Amino acid sequence: MTKRADTSSPPFHNIDPARAAERLGPRVDTTRFAKAATFCARGRDDMARRGYAPDGTKSLRRFSIWEITRYLIPVAAAHLRRVLKANPDLPQGEGEAGAKWFTLDEVLRLRDHFAEEGAANKEYRPWRPEGLPAKITAVANFKGGSGKTTTCVHLAMAAALDGYKVLVIDLDSQASMTSLLGGKVADEWQTVFPLLARDYARAVNQENLVREAEGQSPLPLDETLTEALEVSPRNLIQSTHWPNIDLIGAQLNLYWSEFQIPVWRMNLKSWSLWDALSNALNEEGLLDEYDLVFLDTPPALGYLTINSLSAADILLVPLGASFLEFDSTGRFFDMLYSTFASIEEGENAQRRRAGLPEMRFEWDVVRAVITRYDAGQQTDLANVIQAYFGDFMTAYRQEFTALVGQAGEQINGIYEADYRDFNRETYLRGREAFDRTYAEFKELLLGSWYRDMKEDEEESHGQTQDA
What we know:
Layout: H1 17-22, H2 30-48, E1 63-64, H3 65-72, H4 77-86, E2 101-102, H5 104-117, E3 135-139, H6 148-162, E4 166-170, H7 176-180, H8 193-213, H9 223-228, H10 233-236, E5 238-239, E6 245-248, H11 257-267, H12 276-281, H13 286-289, E7 292-296, H14 303-311, E8 314-320, H15 323-354, E9 365-371, H16 375-389, H17 402-409, H18 424-466
Parallel strand pairs: 3-7, 3-8, 4-6, 4-7, 8-9
Antiparallel strand pairs: 1-2, 5-6
């Protein structure tokens, strides 16, 4: 006769302290953390390879004619096949005539062909106004688990599929974005850290010129700062398995920036620490070479996040449809106000004394984005959140679908998932969740560029009239 478990009392009643003590194991010292970290590193590599090629590197799948003509190039499948047959110099893909598959690089080449030879009324390449720099988008919230990295990586991938050239910068020492894009980062010298150090070192050099003229002792430059002066942003950029996505990755030691930056600031209070990343991105033509730069930030309003927000044109703030995440996001906005208003106040006090024009931080657009949305359970609360945020929130709520969950288990983005591995409804629903998020982001992007273009035209026209 099978003995049934006693369900008359909850499981946290009648726990035997002696038996509990037996299950504790020995007390833990610091070396046990090292052992746990080693096991996790092995497991992480093991799990990551589920989405990697046998040699340990990530590779991007091929795209079928159905996907290309439905999502990537606005032509009919039959017309694409006719064009391929008539132009044997174009990429022909792999497989039989009726089921050809193409790499993304080949898709981009096909897109270029149609842009030159196709119908004049169709958009084969995404719009970017000539002569204007790339737009920088920061995805930030100090609430962990809000969907920052998921949102950031899928926007980057969607933009790449759309034909834009993308640079992704991972500023989170947990390096989830770096893992998703297959980045290899040995130490902090392959992260943004040397760019921040270089900016401070340059400020020290400028200060020392003033000190020399006034007969004062110079501020010291240690070995780290001297080495950082030789680093270019281009030294840090690595290609990914996406032909039009590049990466500046992160790793654990990047976190030390949060301790080092305030030390540098104490040594030189005139250093504008919040401009370090922006200064690096504005050099060497990076913002002309790329169309979009995405910044994935840590779950904290520290110095790395402040640098990201200062550099950004567009700020996206993901949050879940829960009271706690709504409350946390409200506090995030409050801290943004306090932090940047304080910087403005301090800087402008000095500028007024020096007779210089005042500065202010400004973003093209800021939007909160509801992520991991469950319409069956969260509609009422999401409507309340939408009412309070008003035009600070995107209209579309990013649903959590089976495709998102399964792709995440394989260390992939949903755009990397092969639709043949899912039933049709699951794939289409999951893809739509991020296509609609990207569509709303793209509208913000194009609107920002268009406004800049019109302002430039008006300024140019005004200068012509004055002349």
